[in-house]
Design a protein that fits this description.
Elements (H helix, E strand, L loop, with lengths): L1 H15 L2 H8 L3 H15 L4 E4 L2 E4 L1 H27 L5 E7 L7 H12 L3 E7 L2 H9 L5 E3 L20 E3 L14 H4 L4 E7 L4 E6 L2
Parallel strand pairs: 3-4, 3-5, 6-8
Antiparallel strand pairs: 1-2, 7-8
Helix pairs in contact: 1-2, 1-4
Length: 210
């Protein structure tokens, strides 16, 4: 599919920020890559890139076109996965953007469980803050984003929501220990110091203020 190859080349140039760097990644000459880009620009009738002294950047028309390109590439991956499903063997690649809290335990465990049933599916997990994770969904560099307190809910389809419980770890003689359950509004009346949060667990280590 020559057209798909061409739009992948353009996507690579956008990510690399220069034709030469993208050519190195794609294992073709920068001259050949530039010819592909010029041919696409001629077909569109407008420049896709603005040529700069040390690279390229998208033109206004290029910004519109790259969104179209990434939609097409994402759709093609989905089609390939669906075709592979017809053979009874699920294949494909899933790119996930998530926060640091999910990297040590949760996502590795979930991916391992899924790959036991579907070993031909590969995963790429990318560390992103909330804003960057949502941006990755917009530009199709991620298929899924797992974030706390999403902002742009109207722009995306939410697959699942999970409540995040909060737990407190304290010494045996701490005043909170005698409260079962320790209701949050009541807990606020007791002076305390939050020493640290155990990453990704929703657990806080609590000590009483002096």
């Amino acid at each position: 599919m020559r057209y798909l190859s061409s739009i992948r080349y353009i996507d690579a140039v956008v990510k690399a920020g220069s034709i030469r760097a993208a050519a190195d990644t794609l294992a073709i000459t920068s001259t050949a890559l530039n010819r592909r880009i010029l041919a696409m620009e001629e077909e569109l009738g407008v420049p896709i890139f603005e040529r700069l002294p040390h690279g390229v950047r998208l033109s206004a028309a290029g910004e519109i076109y790259i969104h179209h390109i990434r939609n097409q590439l994402s759709d093609m991956e989905r089609v390939r996965s669906q075709i592979a499903d017809l053979s009874g063997v699920r294949r494909g690649h899933v790119s996930i953007a998530c926060s640091q809290a999910l990297l040590p335990y949760f996502l590795p465990n979930q991916i391992a469980l899924y790959r036991k049933e579907h070993p031909n599916v590969t995963f790429g997990v990318h560390l992103r803050d909330r804003e960057a994770a949502e941006g990755a969904l917009v530009d199709h560099s991620a298929d899924l984003a797992v974030v706390f307190e999403p902002v742009r809910l109207t722009d995306f389809m939410t697959l699942i929501r999970v409540r995040q419980p909060v737990h407190a770890v304290m010494s045996p003689d701490h005043p909170w220990r005698r409260r079962r359950p320790c209701v949050y509004p009541t807990a606020l009346t007791i002076p305390f110091h939050c020493r640290r949060r155990l990453t990704g667990s929703g657990i806080f280590w609590i000590s009483q203020c002096e």
